[in-house]
Amino acid sequence: MDLANIWKWLPTLLLALESLPEYNCHLKMSFIKVVEKSDFSYYNLPYGIFSTADNPRHRIGVAIGDQILDLSVIRSLFTGPSLSKHQEVFDQTTLNGFMGLGYNAWKEARRTLQVLLSANETTLRDDVTMRSRAFVPQSSARMHLPAEIGDYTDFYSSKDHATNVGIMFRGKENALMPNWLRLPVGYHGRASSVVVSETPIRRPSGQMRPDQSKPPVFGASKQLDIELEMAFFVGKGNPLGEPIPIEKAHEHIFGMVLMNDWSARDIQAWEYVPLGPFLGKNFGTTISPWVVPMEALLPFIEPNAVQDPEPLPYLRHTDYYAFNINLFVSLKGEDMTEEDTICKSNFKYMYWTMKQQLAHHSVGGCNMRPGDLLASGTISGPDPESFGSMLELSWRGSKNLELSGGHTRTFLQDGDQVKITGYCQGDGYRVR
Description:
By secondary structure, the chain is an alpha+beta fold. Helices cover 16% and strands 26% of the residues.
């Protein structure tokens, strides 16, 4: 079996969050040094699961600057009304328990962390013993999947991406299927092969039919592709049979990660009719180790895409829920001296919102659970540089992507490294 030493590195979302009104107060600086270009500002504070060589137990941490704050060490400091009786969730080895506590607990935890980390708060700053136990350098930590993922659903919510793919396979007149503008199309993926960034991905084998006049053949995929996506973790779930109304959807969305939903296009093209993706998708899906809470992203909300025709009532919401998150994909081959950016996109290009995805997923009574992962689908924009897959960038392999040093690609080669990064930008400033 032909194997590819192809892997994807997803560092984090790089956020600038200084416009959040509730933080424009005395809590402006942390006693932890955070350099200007840090990925992990005082306004980010993403959650993740880490271990260290001297303590291999998985535990919950929050990133700030180049440090990780170990929440198992400071669990007793969460004394608010929502968390004082549930401090044990910070001793768990995944985020599922914390996610399951719900919206009020998440807000309380974030506010508590910002108080504890502020420069003028002495509780943690001046407790030398606790500080020595609570902070771990990120450089000495190993990151793990943030949650036990019970179920994984991948949507198809970029109109530009769906249109491009439709044109390739069905022609311009039939680019979008009749249901696409009426509901968020999605499929159930394979949760067991969702892995954290820097996990090697092997080139899959399966059936393909490259020559339509001949029978299918078996072998390693020759059209291995990336898909630029973002995904959100469900927090508190819903009982079986009781849908999550769109008005309450935000309170069930814990936070977001970057994602690459690896795709074997030649396997997928042969197998997907009539039931959708199978072997062409289930060999690997990569997510970033840090989960950025929705409260950190709220300052970057923008107007939703104009939806025509108007969705049915259960999918309608007038409040904004598109997010201005700049996204980049870079590629570096074994034969290349530097990485090349092959895509510049933005999460705001999505047609269907996360609220609509969650409301539609549960409207039939499906019970969502803490740690369920719901992905956006490929994030493509209106111009070629914003196309979020090599399928689109090479237009189904019909043209080469020109890279530095005279190198070219249509799809991934063995040894290619792919990196996805993102950042949010406020008015007049940008923090990377």
